[in-house]
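dumping these here so i dont lose them again. two proteins, back to back, each one seq then C-alpha cells. dont judge the mess
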Amino acid sequence: MKYVLFLITYFFILTISSQDLSKLYERVNPAVVVIFTQEAKLESNAGITKTITSEGLGSGFMVSDSEIITASHVVDAAEQLRVQFLDGEIISAKVISTFKSADVALIKLDIPRKNAITIPFGDSDQVKVGEQVFIVGAPFGYGHSLSSGYVSGIVKNKLGTNPFTQSEFIQTDAAINTGNSGGPMFNMKGEVVGVVSQILTKSGGFEGIGFAATANITKNLIANNRTPWLGFDAYPLTGKTKRLFNVPQNSGLLVQRVVFGSVLYKMGLQAGDTEVVIDGQKLIIGGDIILAFNEIEFDLTDESLAKLGELGKDLKTTDRLELKVLRNGQIITLKK
C-alpha cells in the first residue's frame, strides 16, 4: 500500500512540475530570439587560400526593446546580424560589446522591437547543484526549442580584476546543441541565471556536459564595462609563439580577422591570410601584431589588462584611438 501511495505521489509531483514548466515556457519564450550571422572566413584547399562567406546560427534574449544578450562566439566576428522573433519578424542588428573569456555579448537592433517582451535576470549566486533549470534556444535551427535538466556544478575562473580574464559558468546536463549558444538558461522562477556557452564533447554532439555563463558575471560585464566592439579577432602571443614572431615585448596580439566596416578595419588594421598549425593551435598568420592601444602596452598581466579595460569603458566611438602594430618587421602607428 505504501508503495502504491509513493507512486501516486511521485506521478502527481511529476505532473505538477511539467505543468509549471509548460507555463514558464509560454511566459518567457516570446523574449527568446534566433540570431543569424554572416562572416568572412579563410578556406584552404590544395595550398590555395581563399575568403568565403560563412553563415552562423545562435540564440539570444531581449533585455530591452532594442538590446539582446547572446554569446560572444556567436557574434564577435560577424559582418551581418539578423534577429528573428517568435512571430517571424526579422530585424538587423549590430554588435555593441563582447567579452571573450566570459563568452557574453550585447547586440542592438537597428530599430526597436515594438511591444517587446523582456525577461529578468536572477541571482546566479543562489543557484545550487541539483537545482532544476531549463534552456530555450534554436538547436540546429529549430527555434524556441526547450530542454531541461539539472545544475551539475559551478565553475569559477575570476583571474584578477580586469574584465578580460573573468569567467564563471554553470555546468548542466540540459541538452545543448549547435544553435543553442547565447540562449537563456532559466531557473524555475522564469529568471535568467545563465547564458548558454559551450559543451564538452568527443562526438561533436551533446554528451551531457554543457556550460552557461552565469547571470551575475554577464550583468557585471555588460552593465559595468561595456567595452565597445572594435571588430577584430586576435590571438595572444607569449613565450614560444612570441619568440617565433619576433615580438619586441612580453606579449602581442596576432590579428586573425578584421570585420569589414568596423572601427579597426577603417583604421587600416590588417588581418592574416594564411592558415597554419603551431603546437596544435590553428592560427591565421600574415596579419598585424598589436603591441599597444593608446600607448598602453598589451601584456597578459592583470595590471596591463585592467588599464585596457578602463580604456575600453571610457572609449566612445568618437574618441581618439591609436594602435601600435608590428607589420612586416616594422613598427607602425594606426590612428582613428
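---- next one ----
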Amino acid sequence: MRRPRLALVPGEPAGVGPELCVRLAQEPRADCGLIAFADPDTLHAAAEALGLPLRPLPVDATPHAPGDLPLLPVTNPAPVVFGRPDPRNARAVVGALHAAAQACLEGTLDGLVTGPIHKATVNAGGIPYTGTTELLAAHAGCEVVMMLATDQLRVALATTHLPLREVPDAIIPAGLEASLRILHAALRLDFGIAEPVIAVLGLNPHAGESGHLGREEIEVIEPVLHALRGEGLCLLGPLPADTAFLPRKLAGYDAVLAMYHDQGLPVLKHSGFEHAVNITLGLPYPRVAVDHGTALDLAGKGIADPSSLFAAVAACARIANTRSARTGRG
C-alpha cells in the first residue's frame, strides 16, 4: 500500500501554525508525505525565528533532509507580523483551506491536516466564518460531525459552536440521528471498529432524572436511540454526563456523543490536551486539526508545543490508510 499524501495548511499566519509546520518539516515521516499550502515568506520567517532550516520543494519532490517541505505557494497579500493577525490576509487563509480541500475531493491528495484559524480576523476580513469544520462541510456539500480524540478517548459533538441558550432547541431528532449515523459509520470506516459502542450523553443534569430536570431525554434523545438500536447500532444512554467519563465506564465504549461543546471537551482536554486532535467525521476525505488555538502570545518565540500537530498528522495518515484498506484503494 502506498503512503498517503496529505495536505498541510498552517492556518493563521500570525499565529503559531507556521512555526509548528517548520518543526514538522524537521522530522522524516515514514507514514505519509506532506504538501504544505502556505506562504513561503511566512514559513521562512518562522524558520528564522526558530533557527531551523527550511527548503521549499516542488509538490512532487521527496524530502531528503531536515527542513525539506513540498510546498504549493499561497501568498499572503499583507506582511505577516507574528502575534498580530491582519484581516487583509483572511482570503489567503481561507483560500489555502479551499485549495487543499479541493485537492482532497479530486483525489489528488488523501487527507487534510489544518492548523489553527483566528475566527475574528477572518470575519474582519469580510468572510463569514464560524469554523473550519463548518467551512469544509459547506465546501464538500455534506453533513459532518466534530470529534476530538486522544489515544484514550473519543468525544463527538451533537452541536458545536453555539451559545448555550440555543443548544436545547438545536437538539432535534433529525440532527441527532444524523450525528449518530455519521459517528457510527466513521468508527467503522476510519477506525476499523466492526461493531462500535457509542455512549450518548443526556442534555440535562442526571440525564433529566426521569423528566424532573428536563424532558429532552424522554421526548427527543431516547426515541432516536430506540429507533437506531432497532437497526443494529449499539448505543448506550442517554447517560448522565457527570459519571459517563469514569474510567471503568469509558472502557466499555468506543466513543462518546456529547450534546454540546463544553459538556464533553473539558474532560477530553484534561485527559491529554497536548496530544488531542480534532477530526471532522463525514467528509469524503480524512481531515484532522490541532486541538488548540492560534496562541498569538507565543507566536514567533519558538516555544509553542508542536505535539498536537504531530499527533494530527499521524492520526490523518492512519485514517487515510484505514480507509484505503477498507475501500480497496491505494
